Amino acid sequence: MPTVDRPQHKSAALPLALAYGALIVYASLYPFADWRDQGIAPWAYLSAPWPKYWTGFDFAVNVAGYVPFGFLCALAVLRTGRAAGVWPAVLRATVAGAAVSFAMETLQSYLPARIPSNVDLGLNTAGAIVGAVLAAGLERLGAVAHWSRARSQWFAEDSRGALVLLALWPFALLFPAAVTFGLGQVFERLEVAISEWLLDTPFIDWLPLRQFELEPLVPAVELLCVMLGALVPCLLGYLVARSVVQRAVLLPLTLLSGIAASALSAALSYGPEHAWAWLGLPVQVGMAAALFAGVLLLFAPRRLCAALLLMGLVLQLSLLNQAPESAYFAQTLATWEQGRFIRFHGLAQWLGWVWPYAVMVYVVAALSRRGRSGAAPTS
């Protein structure tokens, strides 16, 4: 099939593929401990016989785990417009999936807790092929071009960073937080971790002593943190939405995605019957306040939205990190860190910790770009 020159785009598919690749690395190499040379060639698994114990669940997980990666890689190639046809994009995505799987299985040879498998390698590669073919099919049907046009109509030209952060926000909320929508509460854990690292070293004396005791949040402050936590992603969407109409659509969709993610997190932590237990009065009022503020800011200039976003983030992080984690919340974390979510908790936890700071960096970088318009979006 002849190749077709396409205009180059800054697609969100590439950073999403990289983010998903990081997820694969984490899931494949966890718990990242007890690395050792086990006295065999790291690629010896390639000639190993078919495993004695194998289940349909293992088969499905190994295939399904690489389908999004193959899909995003093929989509990234198709969206770059570098004269790549559909099938060359499928080939590149397949090679990328196979290469990542080979690297992960090979590195597992150095982890006693993990077992490398040639069957996993084959199934991972098959999953990447399925995802890449799915992307190719959507390209043939014109869905990719339709999304490109829709994105150009809805979002500003350089919007992929914000779109990636918005897509990651619900996943960041999956790890249970002490305060609803309260991402980035790291001060207490960071303080303990640094103390443990410096223990029995001369540098422990350099660690500054905290001059105040961490106090639990009063309901009014919790309400404010909930409001700010819900409003920040809405303002992030406002920065890249082209018009007030798009903002008016993004506002409820963003809030609903946060509600759904919080309900799923509660269901995973406490059971399905407690999926809505987190929706207390302070949370309800805080969400209503965020919705009200979002409506008021529909016509606000982008620079004002960016400034309010940064101020809201700084205020929320300051309040959250002056409060301790409750004992009940610590017990919930133990369920994730030692129980059924042990392979997932670390990635979700880091995402919840890092997300607000990544948003802050993105917005500061966006504000620093020359020629950025401060006018209000068109209606």
From TrEMBL:
Segments forming domain VanZ-like: 27-135
InterPro entries attached to this UniProt entry: VanZ-like (IPR006976)
Parts of the chain that traverse the membrane: 12-33, 53-78, 90-111, 123-141, 162-183, 217-241, 248-270, 276-299, 306-324, 344-365
Keywords: Membrane, Transmembrane, Transmembrane helix
Database matches in Pfam families: VanZ (PF04892)
Protein name stated in the entry: VanZ family protein
